[in-house]
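Morning. Coffee machine broken again, so started the prediction first thing and wrote up yesterday's gels while waiting. Chain of 124 residues, entered below exactly as on the submission form.
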Amino acid sequence: MNITHASFITLPVTDQDRALRFYVDVLGFDVVVDRQMPPGRWLQVAPAGAQTVFTLSGPGMGDFVPGSTRGIMLATTDVDADCERLRAAGAEVSGPDELPWGRMAGFSDPDGNSLMLITEKKGL
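Came back before lunch.
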């Protein structure tokens, strides 16, 4: 096997513009690709410098169900500050909670895709 990384993760959304505003304006992601192609708009975002990007898949771009993605873990240097920013933007946030491996919090994007934030404990 010669796999080096995950290329992209699909996040099914109902409104790509609304999702784009959330991922760029709230989470601080960069737009990697935004172009029209059959059968629809190919829209990808990612944290600066990330190898793996997120495809914001809108209607007509596959058999995906908006809000069905779960278990994506985003590493952050300050989970508490990020939770405050998410709450200020109107997102529902659970946590952060202190766990043996770090501080974690959960939140959902505007379509209900579930994501997690973690500030990992050093030395694990």
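Residues 30 and 49 are 9 Å apart (CA to CA). Going to sketch it on the whiteboard this afternoon.
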